[in-house]
Amino acid sequence: MLFDFNFASIPHIIFGAGRLNEIYGLIPKFGNNALYVIGGSSLKKSGKWDEIANTMQKKAISFSEISVSKEPTPALVDAAAQKFRNQKVDVVVGIGGGSVIDAGKAISAMLPKNDSIKNYLEGVGNKAHDGRKIPYIAVPTTSGTGSEATKNAVITELGIGGFKKSLRHDNLIPNYAVIDPQLVLSCPKSVTAPCGMDAFTQLLEAFVSPKSNPITDALAKNGIKQMKNAIISTCNDKALDITARAAMAYGSLMSGIVLANAGLGIVHGFASSIGGLFNIPHGVVCGTLLAESTKMNIKRLEHLGTEGKIGLLKYAIVGALINGKESFEEINVAHYCSILIERLDNWTKQLNIDRLGKYGITTADIDSIIEKTGLKNNPVHLKPEDLKEILIKRI
Amino acid sequence: MLFDFNFASIPHIIFGAGRLNEIYGLIPKFGNNALYVIGGSSLKKSGKWDEIANTMQKKAISFSEISVSKEPTPALVDAAAQKFRNQKVDVVVGIGGGSVIDAGKAISAMLPKNDSIKNYLEGVGNKAHDGRKIPYIAVPTTSGTGSEATKNAVITELGIGGFKKSLRHDNLIPNYAVIDPQLVLSCPKSVTAPCGMDAFTQLLEAFVSPKSNPITDALAKNGIKQMKNAIISTCNDKALDITARAAMAYGSLMSGIVLANAGLGIVHGFASSIGGLFNIPHGVVCGTLLAESTKMNIKRLEHLGTEGKIGLLKYAIVGALINGKESFEEINVAHYCSILIERLDNWTKQLNIDRLGKYGITTADIDSIIEKTGLKNNPVHLKPEDLKEILIKRI
User: Do B250 and A214 touch (CB under 8 A)?
Assistant: First the structure.
């Protein structure tokens, strides 16, 4: 297992407080016409957008903009691609949360095409995207999805025939990821908390994935170490602390790199099914189900006996890391697995992560959710009744 | 320091025994005309080249080949680029040691140009390469330079006006790095030992570099952990052990990734100057100077007082890692620095790394070497007399 792996390329990363300013040097590398994909309001409210627009004008770089106020739908991506397809766009710049970064990624990939993104979505369309795209610079303003480092864009169609599916190709990894923790400083607790839980879920799920490899393991542990204290403190006394915000931004970036290479598990299986059926933020689904899903995975791994040992050891390593331990040679697996569970339970409470019920989900929905839930790269097989048990605890 | 960094993209990595075969799936992604850059003899002697040529014919992919039997010179690269410039080449595939991988990288970058590579070499020419190249697949057959993951190709002109300088651009990072430890199994001790010392030097120098960042630190530690035992065993009883060879190949790959992002130190400063003046394998220069250079760096860092603490801690972490320790919280810095030095001294002896004198270098050459030696990203300033002291010990 250790020594047979693939690792997709990662974007060129520019990380540091105040480094948003470097986009004006990057854009001309691709040309003189930029298309900005930005969020619904916060960038404009903060005055940051005016600052960007003024600087673009001063530098005489022409640009257009599109606002994305929710998780991107096929209709949104198609309309944007159609509008700008015949205009000259040399580079797409996405500045915002995960939805915006994904929208920008999808638009950059659909500009060179002539049909709907639906044709290229996994499990929806029957065409394979060839990776041709307009160069893309991703600038996250939340620390959550890690989409600035991944090769997929998640597209959502809500409702009964709804879905939450990916447009995916190795070449869709952004050309540049510019991560400026200053942009996250104004992020409120209601967003910071579920985003942080999403990023941590990604680190944990990729670390315990059967597809993990030595590189993803090293980077996942590195991300977990940075996030373990900041996940709570950035929602409390350190919301304006640039070092704590940088730690979260770094953890989120690592989570994107590792998920792109090792995949995810059952929590993101749920995020995909529940996210297609209900209007609920992605981070809330992940955050609310993380502790219970981890408990179930550990229980099922314990039942496996010898076969479950590697998975349990990995959970224990995460428990030890969160507990400040860095040496894992003679580790008490059961002890640190229970520390991990205890800590995840605490985080869920301390961060006031919503229950599913708040978004109208009831026990009557469980069967239709489970029917649409895939296990992804979960470290152990779970039966429908296991999934049901997880969901019931968080309705 | 922790949270302000750049990280260049890394190649798509395909790692595992027997995975050389995947090149036949990769090449058609770029087109139907491949140019192979291979070594002088060992690939042909082993029958591996016939196997590759036969498979290419069976798959009806047309190809040409160039042999590179020494460290690439401007004349070699220019001649190859000129010969194939007007033929259709869709992808360059370099299979060999560091010299071959660098030659292939340079040729892929010079095919779209019309002049000599000398114009683009750092410190030699006055043009900046723009990064346009023919796609490049790198397949190392030694575990040494890590060039399969770097953005530069080292070009050598021997003699009095000689140099060892880089063609460098972010976009020169190979598109794919295919690392098949089976290809290294036949590598003799005389090559394995200096290559291993080169790779370890790169991991160590990048780890202690002032330009190191959390990602390079995580990957450097990861590489050191894999190499710490295999560096000796692959030169002895485990020369044919695929797991030990894989550990070395992995360490070498990590060394390339981290050096591309954190830079190198004084040992590679010497490698550049000595390598331009004398006909001596790169790995021998690194291997023979590593222990003495590390002693000098540690001595100078100790003299610095507080300012030298971070550097010393990093050396101590490496000493601890080599000694099997993984927790560095309450580390005895002086103790583990001396363990590191002791271990490097032992490796140099156990691996019978040649002294410089064997290649005709005498004390009379020291001044001209020092004059051409840059410190690169060494963790501490060294004076000419420090450099002299290092060299004298290894003449």
Answer: yes
**Best CA proximity match to A351, nearest among A266, A294, A295, A287:** A287
d(CA B136, CA B100): 12
Q: Same domain for A131 and A88?
A: yes
User: Which of B2, B13, B212 has the most A C-beta neighbours within 10 Å, making it the best mutation to test the interface with A?
Assistant: B13
Q: In terms of DSSP bridges, do strands A91-96 and A33-39 run parallel, antiparallel, or are they unpaired? A: parallel
Which of A1, A2, A3 to mutate: most B Cβ within 10 Å?
A3
Residue A157, CB-side half-sphere exposure with 13 Å CA sphere: 15
> Do residue B5 and residue A19 have CB atoms under 8 angstroms apart?
no
Among B2, B5, B14, beta carbon nearest to A6: B14
Domain match, B358 and B318 both: yes
Number of domains chain B is built from: 2
Domain span at residue B157 reads 12-184
Who among B10, B217, B219 is closest to A9 (CB)? B10
Decide which of B325 and A60 is more confident. A60
Residues of chain A with C-beta less than 8 angstroms from the C-beta of B243: 3
Contact B19 A4 (CB under 8 A): yes
pLDDT digit string (tens) for B235-273? 999 999 999 999 999 999 999 999 999 999 999 999 999
Average of per-residue pLDDT across A190-215: 97
The verdict on A386 and A306 lying in the same domain is yes
Q: What share of chain B is helix, strand, coil (3-state, %, to 5)?
A: 55, 10, 30
For residues A196 and A192, give the distance between their C-alpha atoms in angstroms, rounded to a whole number: 6
Cα angle: A338, vertex A316, A382; to 5 degrees: 80
Cβ neighbours for A326, distance < 8 A, ≥ 6 positions apart: A320, B326, B327, B328, B329
